[in-house]
């Protein structure tokens, strides 16, 4: 059992904000940063509180009360925080909906949650809602984060109008609203977050104030370098539990600043403009960043390329010495100073010049990617969690990195490894039982602690499936302990069982092949099949450069590329990297996909995980054809 810890004296998430605004900082201290025109402008704690109060006054005036659900379909921006904090202030519940969901998926969440009101971010998102509006009978009010004049004023209202009304109402309603926050208990429901999932119908995870709050307490203990002087760059969607906790509630708790990125296309520019010290991210973003840095060095060629790779070798030597607490000799120190000046400082400058920490979650980070950033001198802490765990379960400690793992169990939690068959616990580990050399067998990861959701909303049968009678939450992830840290293998449901009875987990195999600088994305197939095949997306810029194809080639409707020269070019790397895998895990045949898998096409979740079932069904024709070959690759 996890050792009991004394928590800070907070009962609600809104009290986190009030403490930062009134105790940690003064009202005029900058809190949020939003891009306006060509530059980032700051928003103080005082201005933020004014906006929260006007929102809470308006919501209270239209009858939104404790326990009521309000849906939000909005990209990351200060207005999201204002509304969320106003909901926390009056005890209402945030039901965030991913802007990328379809109209039917949006309608399902609104109906299932019985949301009374909805905030819509753009005219496009409004049109999506209007397609299914008749199905959403519970919606009484629609808030528009843009100006619009041709809608029913009894149902639709703009945020500008809300602010005007709320500002007038607050002085008279203040005495009614302010006592509410003191009545909120830490186990009250704060949010419904519907699992995006890779299969099945979304389920609404009920997350309490304390689910999130205990996560923040644990995160700060394991990420001790984070403090009130930091600036977070908010990029991942706030509708996702990971960004909500790590990129919003955590900095709000400690009094750090939050800058909002504009989009993935402008993330590189926003790094330099906002100058963050910390960013939460997903493995795919870090893979792209590493690839872009390497490609820039390769394109320069000559001495610049040689210096880049020499610097990486020096950085690796220093990283390994530091991780193993070994002495760094004077010559290596001098070489590292040179590498820092010639290469590493320039990479850091492009990331704003102040970045000290990247926190990766939402999927397994390939070991070589974490090591790359470590070699450059940028700390990358890989963590682990799920929507149902609020989400944080473990993270690599700032002082101790074990690349390829997801770190140490959080202080208030327990993690068990259970045999898949028979279902017996192999080990139970806590923060306090940690041993740096501890290793365990592989099995399903189970979690227990104050971070575990209250259950699935309106779905007791599904809740009973994942939370057993002893209180263990069954994650569906396969993993083990390695060097005292949790190491994730893959999702249990992702496991491929070949027709020869061999078990193959896709993620480690895919990550192995992603070491190739030619491959953008890869998806392997093999369940109930004789051998492993793959759909490979090559890097578009390299195809253009090496094979002379133009933009129109990548816009063609035909999903697959038939060019045998491209295929042979990819085979060169596949054969080399296959040597690192067991024989039955190696790719024997593959097709080359023209366009990347994406969220927009429905092939990826918002955290960029592949929806395996959908992809296999969508490309069934090409997959079936791969198994008609007579002599597979490398056989």
SSE blueprint:
Layout: H1 13-24, E1 30-36, E2 39-44, H2 45-61, E3 69-73, H3 78-90, E4 93-96, H4 103-113, E5 117-120, H5 123-131, E6 141-144, E7 156-158, H6 159-183, E8 189-194, E9 204-208, H7 209-222, E10 231-234, H8 241-254, E11 257-260, H9 267-274, E12 278-281, H10 283-300, H11 302-323, H12 330-350, E13 357-360, H13 367-376, E14 379-385, E15 392-395, E16 408-409, E17 414-418, E18 425-430, E19 443-448, E20 455-456, H14 460-466, E21 473-482, E22 485-491, E23 496-497, E24 503-504, H15 506-513, E25 519-525, E26 532-538, H16 540-547, H17 551-554, E27 560-561, H18 564-578, E28 587-593, H19 612-618, H20 620-626
Parallel strand pairs: 1-11, 3-4, 3-5, 4-8, 5-6, 6-7, 10-11, 10-12, 12-13, 13-14, 26-28
Antiparallel strand pairs: 1-2, 8-9, 9-20, 14-15, 15-16, 17-18, 17-19, 19-21, 21-22, 23-24, 25-26, 27-28
Helix pairs in contact: 1-3, 1-8, 2-3, 2-6, 7-8, 10-11, 10-13, 11-12, 11-13
Give an overview in words:
The protein is α/β, with parallel strands linked by helices and 635 residues long. It is 39% helix and 21% strand. The protein contains 20 helices and 28 strands. The chain has a nine-stranded mixed β-sheet, with helices on both faces. An eight-stranded mixed β-sheet has the order 7-6-5-3-4-8-9-20, with helices on both faces. Helix 2 packs across helix 6. The protein is globular and about 75 Å long. The mean pLDDT is 91.
